[in-house]
Please model this.
Amino acid sequence: MLSQIAASEDLVFFRPHQFLTREHDRPEALYDILEGWACRHRLLPDGRRQITALYLPGDLCDPMWSLTPTCHEPVIALTNVRATRKSLVDPSTIDRHKGFSSRLAESVERQSNWLVSLGRKTAVERLAHLLLELFERMRRAGLAYGQQCALPLTQTDIADATGLTAVHVNRTLQSMRSKGVLELHSKWLRIPDLGALRDLAALGPHDAL
Amino acid sequence: MLSQIAASEDLVFFRPHQFLTREHDRPEALYDILEGWACRHRLLPDGRRQITALYLPGDLCDPMWSLTPTCHEPVIALTNVRATRKSLVDPSTIDRHKGFSSRLAESVERQSNWLVSLGRKTAVERLAHLLLELFERMRRAGLAYGQQCALPLTQTDIADATGLTAVHVNRTLQSMRSKGVLELHSKWLRIPDLGALRDLAALGPHDAL
DNA sequence: CCAGTGAGTTAGCCTATGTTAGCGTCGGGC
DNA sequence: GCCCGACGCTAACATAGGCTAACTCACTGG
Model:
Protein backbone atom coordinates (compact mmCIF):
# COMPACT_ATOMS: atom_id res chain seq x y z
CA MET A 1 0.00 0.00 0.00
CA LEU A 2 3.00 2.25 0.05
CA SER A 3 2.04 3.56 -3.32
CA GLN A 4 -1.04 5.11 -1.82
CA ILE A 5 1.02 7.17 0.52
CA ALA A 6 4.16 8.20 -1.20
CA ALA A 7 4.01 9.21 -4.79
CA SER A 8 7.72 9.57 -4.90
CA GLU A 9 10.66 9.05 -2.64
CA ASP A 10 13.48 11.45 -3.28
CA LEU A 11 16.77 11.79 -1.56
CA VAL A 12 17.07 15.33 -0.24
CA PHE A 13 19.61 17.38 1.68
CA PHE A 14 19.39 20.27 4.08
CA ARG A 15 21.97 22.58 5.62
CA PRO A 16 21.88 23.84 9.18
CA HIS A 17 19.06 26.34 9.75
CA GLN A 18 17.29 25.32 6.61
CA PHE A 19 13.58 24.66 6.91
CA LEU A 20 12.21 21.20 6.38
CA THR A 21 8.79 22.64 7.01
CA ARG A 22 7.66 26.20 7.47
CA GLU A 23 4.93 27.46 9.67
CA HIS A 24 1.56 27.25 7.93
CA ASP A 25 2.74 24.72 5.40
CA ARG A 26 0.13 22.22 4.52
CA PRO A 27 0.93 18.54 4.64
CA GLU A 28 2.88 17.58 1.59
CA ALA A 29 5.67 15.34 2.65
CA LEU A 30 7.23 13.28 5.38
CA TYR A 31 10.94 13.01 5.81
CA ASP A 32 12.71 9.89 6.83
CA ILE A 33 15.90 11.17 8.34
CA LEU A 34 18.88 9.16 7.24
CA GLU A 35 21.61 11.30 8.68
CA GLY A 36 21.82 14.47 10.73
CA TRP A 37 19.56 16.10 13.29
CA ALA A 38 16.62 18.45 13.01
CA CYS A 39 14.21 20.08 15.43
CA ARG A 40 10.80 21.57 15.79
CA HIS A 41 10.78 24.88 17.64
CA ARG A 42 8.95 28.06 18.45
CA LEU A 43 10.09 31.66 18.68
CA LEU A 44 8.58 34.28 20.96
CA PRO A 45 8.18 37.78 19.59
CA ASP A 46 11.30 38.96 21.40
CA GLY A 47 13.49 36.16 20.15
CA ARG A 48 13.34 33.67 22.97
CA ARG A 49 13.32 30.21 21.49
CA GLN A 50 12.05 26.88 22.66
CA ILE A 51 12.81 23.61 20.92
CA THR A 52 9.81 21.35 21.23
CA ALA A 53 11.07 18.23 19.54
CA LEU A 54 14.27 16.74 18.20
CA TYR A 55 14.50 14.51 15.16
CA LEU A 56 17.37 12.05 15.02
CA PRO A 57 18.57 9.73 12.30
CA GLY A 58 16.03 6.99 11.84
CA ASP A 59 13.18 9.23 12.96
CA LEU A 60 10.21 9.90 10.81
CA CYS A 61 9.91 13.64 10.81
CA ASP A 62 6.32 14.67 10.59
CA PRO A 63 5.23 17.93 12.13
CA MET A 64 2.12 16.42 13.69
CA TRP A 65 0.39 16.25 10.39
CA SER A 66 -1.87 13.45 11.30
CA LEU A 67 -3.34 15.83 13.83
CA THR A 68 -3.22 19.37 12.56
CA PRO A 69 -4.18 20.38 9.06
CA THR A 70 -1.51 23.03 9.08
CA CYS A 71 1.90 23.01 10.65
CA HIS A 72 2.13 25.37 13.59
CA GLU A 73 5.77 24.87 14.46
CA PRO A 74 8.50 25.05 11.86
CA VAL A 75 10.99 22.22 11.53
CA ILE A 76 14.57 23.14 10.78
CA ALA A 77 17.82 21.28 10.31
CA LEU A 78 20.37 21.58 13.09
CA THR A 79 23.16 19.91 11.15
CA ASN A 80 23.55 18.77 7.62
CA VAL A 81 20.65 16.46 7.02
CA ARG A 82 20.19 13.73 4.51
CA ALA A 83 16.68 12.38 4.22
CA THR A 84 14.25 10.69 1.92
CA ARG A 85 11.29 12.83 1.15
CA LYS A 86 8.02 10.97 0.88
CA SER A 87 5.55 13.22 -0.75
CA LEU A 88 1.98 12.59 0.20
CA VAL A 89 -0.65 11.83 -2.33
CA ASP A 90 -3.46 12.07 0.10
CA PRO A 91 -2.74 13.59 3.47
CA SER A 92 -5.63 11.77 5.04
CA THR A 93 -3.78 8.52 4.57
CA ILE A 94 -0.84 9.59 6.66
CA ASP A 95 -1.81 7.45 9.56
CA ARG A 96 -1.62 4.32 7.51
CA HIS A 97 2.09 4.80 7.31
CA LYS A 98 4.04 1.96 8.79
CA GLY A 99 4.38 2.15 12.55
CA PHE A 100 2.95 5.57 12.42
CA SER A 101 0.71 5.64 15.43
CA SER A 102 3.29 4.13 17.73
CA ARG A 103 5.80 6.76 16.64
CA LEU A 104 3.25 9.43 17.28
CA ALA A 105 2.59 7.99 20.73
CA GLU A 106 6.30 8.06 21.50
CA SER A 107 6.60 11.63 20.47
CA VAL A 108 3.62 12.74 22.51
CA GLU A 109 4.91 10.90 25.53
CA ARG A 110 8.29 12.51 25.08
CA GLN A 111 6.63 15.89 24.98
CA SER A 112 4.94 15.07 28.23
CA ASN A 113 8.26 14.17 29.78
CA TRP A 114 9.78 17.42 28.62
CA LEU A 115 6.88 19.28 30.13
CA VAL A 116 7.66 17.85 33.52
CA SER A 117 11.33 18.56 33.00
CA LEU A 118 10.81 22.19 32.08
CA GLY A 119 8.23 22.75 34.73
CA ARG A 120 9.82 21.11 37.72
CA LYS A 121 13.40 20.07 37.23
CA THR A 122 16.71 21.75 37.98
CA ALA A 123 19.36 22.41 35.38
CA VAL A 124 21.33 19.27 36.23
CA GLU A 125 18.21 17.14 36.12
CA ARG A 126 17.11 18.57 32.79
CA LEU A 127 20.47 18.00 31.21
CA ALA A 128 20.78 14.51 32.59
CA HIS A 129 17.31 13.73 31.35
CA LEU A 130 17.88 15.15 27.89
CA LEU A 131 21.22 13.50 27.36
CA LEU A 132 19.95 10.17 28.59
CA GLU A 133 17.00 10.40 26.28
CA LEU A 134 19.14 11.24 23.31
CA PHE A 135 21.66 8.54 24.07
CA GLU A 136 18.91 6.00 24.42
CA ARG A 137 17.36 7.04 21.12
CA MET A 138 20.70 6.85 19.38
CA ARG A 139 21.26 3.45 20.88
CA ARG A 140 17.93 2.19 19.61
CA ALA A 141 18.77 3.54 16.21
CA GLY A 142 21.93 1.47 16.28
CA LEU A 143 24.09 4.57 16.40
CA ALA A 144 25.62 4.17 19.83
CA TYR A 145 28.95 2.54 20.40
CA GLY A 146 29.18 1.16 23.90
CA GLN A 147 28.50 4.09 26.16
CA GLN A 148 29.10 6.65 23.48
CA CYS A 149 27.30 8.34 20.67
CA ALA A 150 27.38 11.39 18.45
CA LEU A 151 25.66 14.47 19.80
CA PRO A 152 25.90 17.22 17.21
CA LEU A 153 23.99 19.87 19.17
CA THR A 154 25.59 23.16 20.09
CA GLN A 155 25.28 24.26 23.69
CA THR A 156 22.85 26.89 22.47
CA ASP A 157 20.66 24.17 20.99
CA ILE A 158 20.79 22.29 24.26
CA ALA A 159 19.83 25.46 26.08
CA ASP A 160 16.87 26.02 23.81
CA ALA A 161 15.71 22.47 24.34
CA THR A 162 16.06 22.56 28.12
CA GLY A 163 14.78 26.06 28.71
CA LEU A 164 18.11 27.23 30.08
CA THR A 165 20.75 29.70 28.98
CA ALA A 166 23.73 28.71 26.91
CA VAL A 167 25.95 30.09 29.65
CA HIS A 168 24.26 28.06 32.30
CA VAL A 169 24.31 24.93 30.17
CA ASN A 170 28.03 25.38 29.90
CA ARG A 171 28.48 25.86 33.65
CA THR A 172 26.32 22.86 34.43
CA LEU A 173 27.97 20.59 31.90
CA GLN A 174 31.35 21.59 33.31
CA SER A 175 30.30 20.58 36.76
CA MET A 176 28.85 17.31 35.56
CA ARG A 177 32.02 16.57 33.66
CA SER A 178 34.12 17.30 36.71
CA LYS A 179 32.01 14.87 38.70
CA GLY A 180 32.70 12.27 36.05
CA VAL A 181 29.07 11.52 35.19
CA LEU A 182 29.50 12.43 31.58
CA GLU A 183 31.89 13.49 28.88
CA LEU A 184 30.87 15.72 26.05
CA HIS A 185 33.54 16.99 23.70
CA SER A 186 33.43 18.00 20.09
CA LYS A 187 29.94 16.69 19.46
CA TRP A 188 30.64 13.37 21.05
CA LEU A 189 28.90 12.09 24.17
CA ARG A 190 30.20 9.46 26.54
CA ILE A 191 28.34 8.29 29.61
CA PRO A 192 30.69 6.38 31.88
CA ASP A 193 27.94 5.43 34.31
CA LEU A 194 24.40 5.21 33.01
CA GLY A 195 23.02 4.53 36.46
CA ALA A 196 24.62 7.60 37.97
CA LEU A 197 23.25 9.83 35.25
CA ARG A 198 19.86 8.25 35.62
CA ASP A 199 19.87 9.12 39.30
CA LEU A 200 20.67 12.70 38.46
CA ALA A 201 17.77 12.87 36.05
CA ALA A 202 15.10 12.61 38.74
CA LEU A 203 13.08 10.21 36.68
CA GLY A 204 9.85 8.92 38.05
CA PRO A 205 9.93 5.18 38.75
CA HIS A 206 7.93 4.56 35.60
CA ASP A 207 9.54 6.92 33.17
CA ALA A 208 10.30 4.81 30.20
CA LEU A 209 13.01 6.82 28.52
CA MET B 1 -22.32 3.67 15.57
CA LEU B 2 -22.22 4.82 19.13
CA SER B 3 -23.13 1.37 20.24
CA GLN B 4 -19.79 0.11 19.00
CA ILE B 5 -17.95 2.44 21.27
CA ALA B 6 -19.83 2.78 24.47
CA ALA B 7 -21.44 -0.26 25.96
CA SER B 8 -22.95 1.84 28.65
CA GLU B 9 -23.15 5.43 29.64
CA ASP B 10 -23.35 5.95 33.35
CA LEU B 11 -23.49 9.12 35.32
CA VAL B 12 -20.58 9.13 37.75
CA PHE B 13 -19.22 11.44 40.42
CA PHE B 14 -15.78 12.15 41.79
CA ARG B 15 -14.53 14.12 44.77
CA PRO B 16 -11.40 16.25 44.76
CA HIS B 17 -8.22 14.15 44.60
CA GLN B 18 -10.10 11.11 43.46
CA PHE B 19 -8.66 9.25 40.51
CA LEU B 20 -10.51 9.12 37.24
CA THR B 21 -7.70 7.01 35.91
CA ARG B 22 -4.70 5.54 37.66
CA GLU B 23 -1.27 5.05 36.28
CA HIS B 24 -1.02 1.79 34.34
CA ASP B 25 -4.74 1.48 33.90
CA ARG B 26 -5.71 0.01 30.61
CA PRO B 27 -8.25 1.75 28.42
CA GLU B 28 -11.70 1.05 29.74
CA ALA B 29 -13.63 4.23 29.68
CA LEU B 30 -13.81 7.80 28.56
CA TYR B 31 -15.37 10.49 30.66
CA ASP B 32 -17.40 13.29 29.30
CA ILE B 33 -17.07 15.95 31.94
CA LEU B 34 -20.36 17.60 32.67
CA GLU B 35 -19.33 19.65 35.64
CA GLY B 36 -16.14 20.28 37.60
CA TRP B 37 -12.48 20.23 36.68
CA ALA B 38 -9.88 17.49 36.53
CA CYS B 39 -6.23 17.24 35.57
CA ARG B 40 -3.56 14.91 34.35
CA HIS B 41 -0.32 15.21 36.28
CA ARG B 42 2.98 13.67 37.18
CA LEU B 43 4.86 13.40 40.48
CA LEU B 44 8.61 13.30 40.83
CA PRO B 45 10.06 10.95 43.42
CA ASP B 46 10.57 13.81 45.87
CA GLY B 47 7.05 15.13 45.59
CA ARG B 48 7.41 17.86 43.04
CA ARG B 49 4.33 17.88 40.87
CA GLN B 50 3.59 19.00 37.35
CA ILE B 51 0.13 19.24 35.90
CA THR B 52 0.27 18.32 32.23
CA ALA B 53 -3.32 18.86 31.22
CA LEU B 54 -6.53 20.34 32.54
CA TYR B 55 -9.98 18.97 31.80
CA LEU B 56 -12.87 21.41 31.92
CA PRO B 57 -16.59 20.90 31.68
CA GLY B 58 -17.44 19.85 28.17
CA ASP B 59 -14.07 18.22 27.66
CA LEU B 60 -13.71 14.63 26.74
CA CYS B 61 -11.27 13.26 29.24
CA ASP B 62 -9.19 10.57 27.71
CA PRO B 63 -5.70 10.01 28.98
CA MET B 64 -4.23 9.69 25.51
CA TRP B 65 -5.70 6.29 25.04
CA SER B 66 -5.83 6.43 21.35
CA LEU B 67 -2.07 6.61 21.52
CA THR B 68 -0.75 4.65 24.45
CA PRO B 69 -1.97 1.22 25.40
CA THR B 70 -1.50 2.04 29.05
CA CYS B 71 -2.01 5.29 30.87
CA HIS B 72 1.24 6.81 32.01
CA GLU B 73 -0.14 9.83 33.80
CA PRO B 74 -2.93 9.58 36.31
CA VAL B 75 -6.00 11.75 35.97
CA ILE B 76 -7.52 13.14 39.13
CA ALA B 77 -10.41 15.39 40.00
CA LEU B 78 -9.58 18.87 41.20
CA THR B 79 -13.12 19.71 42.28
CA ASN B 80 -16.29 17.74 42.56
CA VAL B 81 -16.79 16.25 39.15
CA ARG B 82 -19.91 15.01 37.47
CA ALA B 83 -19.34 13.06 34.28
CA THR B 84 -20.78 10.43 32.05
CA ARG B 85 -18.63 7.40 31.86
CA LYS B 86 -18.50 5.75 28.47
CA SER B 87 -17.06 2.36 28.88
CA LEU B 88 -15.24 1.06 25.88
CA VAL B 89 -16.16 -2.17 24.24
CA ASP B 90 -13.20 -2.23 21.99
CA PRO B 91 -10.41 0.19 22.75
CA SER B 92 -9.23 0.12 19.18
CA THR B 93 -12.36 1.92 18.15
CA ILE B 94 -11.66 4.93 20.33
CA ASP B 95 -10.68 7.10 17.49
CA ARG B 96 -14.01 6.71 15.82
CA HIS B 97 -15.50 8.69 18.63
CA LYS B 98 -17.17 11.85 17.49
CA GLY B 99 -14.77 14.72 16.94
CA PHE B 100 -12.10 12.68 18.52
CA SER B 101 -9.10 13.44 16.41
CA SER B 102 -9.69 17.16 16.43
CA ARG B 103 -9.91 17.12 20.22
CA LEU B 104 -6.70 15.17 20.33
CA ALA B 105 -5.08 17.69 18.04
CA GLU B 106 -6.16 20.52 20.30
CA SER B 107 -4.78 18.85 23.34
CA VAL B 108 -1.44 18.13 21.72
CA GLU B 109 -1.18 21.70 20.50
CA ARG B 110 -1.99 22.94 23.97
CA GLN B 111 0.76 20.79 25.35
CA SER B 112 3.12 22.36 22.88
CA ASN B 113 2.09 25.81 24.02
CA TRP B 114 2.67 24.88 27.63
CA LEU B 115 6.09 23.59 26.71
CA VAL B 116 7.04 26.98 25.38
CA SER B 117 5.54 28.64 28.41
CA LEU B 118 7.40 26.51 30.91
CA GLY B 119 10.62 26.66 28.99
CA ARG B 120 10.82 30.32 28.16
CA LYS B 121 8.27 32.51 29.84
CA THR B 122 8.30 34.55 33.03
CA ALA B 123 5.82 34.10 35.85
CA VAL B 124 3.57 36.92 34.65
CA GLU B 125 3.58 35.58 31.12
CA ARG B 126 2.80 32.05 32.22
CA LEU B 127 -0.08 33.15 34.37
CA ALA B 128 -1.49 35.44 31.72
CA HIS B 129 -1.21 32.65 29.19
CA LEU B 130 -2.84 30.05 31.42
CA LEU B 131 -5.70 32.25 32.53
CA LEU B 132 -6.38 33.40 29.00
CA GLU B 133 -6.43 29.85 27.79
CA LEU B 134 -8.78 28.74 30.50
CA PHE B 135 -11.09 31.69 30.01
CA GLU B 136 -11.20 31.04 26.30
CA ARG B 137 -11.99 27.39 26.85
CA MET B 138 -14.73 28.25 29.28
CA ARG B 139 -16.10 30.75 26.82
CA ARG B 140 -16.22 28.18 24.06
CA ALA B 141 -17.96 25.80 26.39
CA GLY B 142 -20.60 28.45 26.93
CA LEU B 143 -19.58 28.89 30.53
CA ALA B 144 -18.28 32.44 30.42
CA TYR B 145 -20.43 35.42 31.27
CA GLY B 146 -19.10 38.51 29.60
CA GLN B 147 -15.52 38.81 30.74
CA GLN B 148 -15.95 36.43 33.61
CA CYS B 149 -15.92 32.75 34.33
CA ALA B 150 -15.50 30.26 37.12
CA LEU B 151 -11.98 29.21 37.91
CA PRO B 152 -12.07 26.62 40.65
CA LEU B 153 -8.33 26.02 40.86
CA THR B 154 -6.41 26.64 44.05
CA GLN B 155 -3.27 28.69 43.80
CA THR B 156 -1.35 25.50 44.41
CA ASP B 157 -2.98 23.93 41.38
CA ILE B 158 -2.09 26.98 39.33
CA ALA B 159 1.46 26.69 40.58
CA ASP B 160 1.68 23.06 39.58
CA ALA B 161 0.35 23.86 36.14
CA THR B 162 2.71 26.77 35.54
CA GLY B 163 5.82 25.30 37.10
CA LEU B 164 5.93 27.97 39.78
CA THR B 165 5.54 28.00 43.56
CA ALA B 166 2.24 28.65 45.25
CA VAL B 167 3.85 31.56 47.06
CA HIS B 168 5.11 33.07 43.86
CA VAL B 169 1.79 32.56 42.13
CA ASN B 170 0.22 34.51 44.92
CA ARG B 171 2.75 37.34 44.69
CA THR B 172 2.38 37.53 40.95
CA LEU B 173 -1.40 37.43 40.98
CA GLN B 174 -1.39 40.23 43.54
CA SER B 175 0.71 42.38 41.33
CA MET B 176 -1.45 41.66 38.31
CA ARG B 177 -4.55 42.46 40.28
CA SER B 178 -3.06 45.71 41.45
CA LYS B 179 -2.32 46.63 37.86
CA GLY B 180 -5.94 45.93 37.06
CA VAL B 181 -5.33 43.35 34.35
CA LEU B 182 -7.33 40.71 36.13
CA GLU B 183 -9.49 39.90 39.11
CA LEU B 184 -9.50 36.52 40.72
CA HIS B 185 -11.44 36.07 43.93
CA SER B 186 -13.10 33.07 45.44
CA LYS B 187 -12.76 30.89 42.38
CA TRP B 188 -14.08 33.52 40.05
CA LEU B 189 -12.07 35.10 37.25
CA ARG B 190 -12.73 38.43 35.64
CA ILE B 191 -10.63 39.88 32.85
CA PRO B 192 -11.37 43.57 32.45
CA ASP B 193 -9.16 43.95 29.41
CA LEU B 194 -8.57 40.90 27.24
CA GLY B 195 -6.11 42.74 25.06
CA ALA B 196 -3.96 43.87 27.95
CA LEU B 197 -3.75 40.36 29.32
CA ARG B 198 -2.95 39.04 25.89
CA ASP B 199 -0.02 41.42 25.65
CA LEU B 200 1.27 40.20 28.96
CA ALA B 201 1.11 36.61 27.76
CA ALA B 202 3.88 36.97 25.20
CA LEU B 203 1.97 34.99 22.64
CA GLY B 204 3.49 34.40 19.28
CA PRO B 205 1.65 36.13 16.45
CA HIS B 206 0.12 32.83 15.46
CA ASP B 207 -0.75 31.34 18.80
CA ALA B 208 -4.33 30.34 18.41
CA LEU B 209 -5.88 30.77 21.83
C1' DC C 1 -18.02 25.17 70.70
C1' DC C 2 -13.68 23.84 69.54
C1' DA C 3 -9.96 21.54 66.92
C1' DG C 4 -8.28 20.60 62.69
C1' DT C 5 -7.53 21.43 57.93
C1' DG C 6 -6.94 23.83 53.57
C1' DA C 7 -6.48 28.01 51.43
C1' DG C 8 -4.76 32.70 50.81
C1' DT C 9 -1.46 36.05 52.25
C1' DT C 10 2.93 38.28 53.72
C1' DA C 11 7.69 38.70 54.97
C1' DG C 12 12.74 37.76 54.93
C1' DC C 13 16.24 35.47 53.23
C1' DC C 14 18.64 32.71 49.79
C1' DT C 15 20.28 30.64 45.53
C1' DA C 16 19.82 28.95 40.99
C1' DT C 17 19.82 30.87 37.01
C1' DG C 18 19.91 34.93 33.82
C1' DT C 19 22.73 38.86 31.82
C1' DT C 20 26.47 41.02 29.81
C1' DA C 21 30.74 41.03 28.18
C1' DG C 22 34.88 39.48 26.79
C1' DC C 23 38.48 35.96 25.35
C1' DG C 24 40.47 32.11 22.49
C1' DT C 25 39.98 28.64 19.06
C1' DC C 26 38.54 26.68 14.98
C1' DG C 27 37.14 26.34 10.17
C1' DG C 28 35.52 28.26 5.87
C1' DG C 29 35.74 31.57 2.17
C1' DC C 30 38.36 34.69 -0.40
C1' DG D 1 47.39 34.26 4.80
C1' DC D 2 43.70 36.79 6.58
C1' DC D 3 38.93 37.72 8.00
C1' DC D 4 35.00 36.60 9.92
C1' DG D 5 31.49 34.15 12.17
C1' DA D 6 30.37 30.22 15.09
C1' DC D 7 31.24 28.16 19.15
C1' DG D 8 33.01 27.04 23.76
C1' DC D 9 34.35 28.98 27.84
C1' DT D 10 34.80 32.24 31.96
C1' DA D 11 33.93 35.90 35.20
C1' DA D 12 31.31 39.53 37.61
C1' DC D 13 27.14 40.99 38.59
C1' DA D 14 21.86 41.15 38.81
C1' DT D 15 17.40 39.16 39.77
C1' DA D 16 13.37 36.23 39.39
C1' DG D 17 11.72 33.09 41.76
C1' DG D 18 12.39 29.37 45.52
C1' DC D 19 12.15 28.28 50.49
C1' DT D 20 10.53 28.68 55.25
C1' DA D 21 7.60 30.17 58.34
C1' DA D 22 3.96 32.54 60.35
C1' DC D 23 -0.68 34.55 60.55
C1' DT D 24 -5.48 34.78 59.05
C1' DC D 25 -9.80 33.29 57.62
C1' DA D 26 -13.22 30.13 56.29
C1' DC D 27 -15.13 25.43 56.77
C1' DT D 28 -15.97 21.01 58.49
C1' DG D 29 -16.78 17.61 61.61
C1' DG D 30 -17.29 15.96 66.18
Observations:
- Helices of chain B lie at 2-5, 100-120, 123-140, 155-162, 166-178, 194-200.
- Chain B has two domains: 2-101, 121-200.
- Residues 2-101 of chain B form a domain with the Jelly Rolls fold (CATH 2.60.120.10).
- DSSP finds six helices and twelve strands in chain B.
